[in-house]
Amino acid sequence: MASTSDIRKGLCIRYNNDIYKIIEFLHVKPGKGPAFVRTKLKSVSSGKVLDNTFSAGHKIEDVRVETRTYQFLYAEGETYHFMNTDDYNQITLQESALDAPGLLKEGEVVKILFNTEDSMPLAVEMPASVILEVTYTEPGVKGNTATNATKPAKVETGAEVNVPLFINEGDKIKIETEKGTYMERVKE
């Protein structure tokens, strides 16, 4: 058993007869009244996200997890296929288990969390950033660089990301996977 002081991003807990992964949390100490922890929980079975508030010192049941390295092979509808990089065993996961499926490129190496009790996959942890090639974007207008203007761009995985005006088709860009936002242009 853990308490609210052990809450951290990525922790898996058992709550309401389901297993949830903490995706955001905030410790709040108001001027009067007791402290509490505001959390955003994502169900590992259904993918639903819910907001919950735990009072300070509240006991939570954490789930022991094991992290294994897998390589993304391909997607088939809403089913995603992964291969263990150690023993080459393959598993399939539903799209709801992924945080940012639109940014997942074939061959990408990810970490998958497994429940140690029953060896069921719980969630997929993407790398902090991915490098993808821009496949389509409108050309930037010369001289329109004084403002922080952005334009939509489609990347090789099919996802859309807002990028600065100087980005062209064929450029490789670094994208932050947590927010799905542009970070920088990558030079070869």
UniProtKB/TrEMBL annotation:
Pathway: Protein biosynthesis; polypeptide chain elongation. The keyword Protein biosynthesis applies. GO terms for molecular function: translation elongation factor activity. One of its GO terms (biological process) is peptide biosynthetic process. Residues 130-185 form the Elongation factor P C-terminal domain. It is found in: Cytoplasm. One of its GO terms (cellular component) is cytosol. It comes from the Bacteria. CDD domains: S1_EF-P_repeat_1, S1_EF-P_repeat_2. Keywords: Cytoplasm, Elongation factor, Protein biosynthesis. SUPFAM superfamilies: Nucleic acid-binding proteins (SSF50249), Translation proteins SH3-like domain (SSF50104). PROSITE patterns: EFP. Signal peptide: none annotated. Belongs to the elongation factor P family. This is Elongation factor P. It comes from Zobellia galactanivorans (strain DSM 12802 / CCUG 47099 / CIP 106680 / NCIMB 13871 / Dsij). The gene is efp.
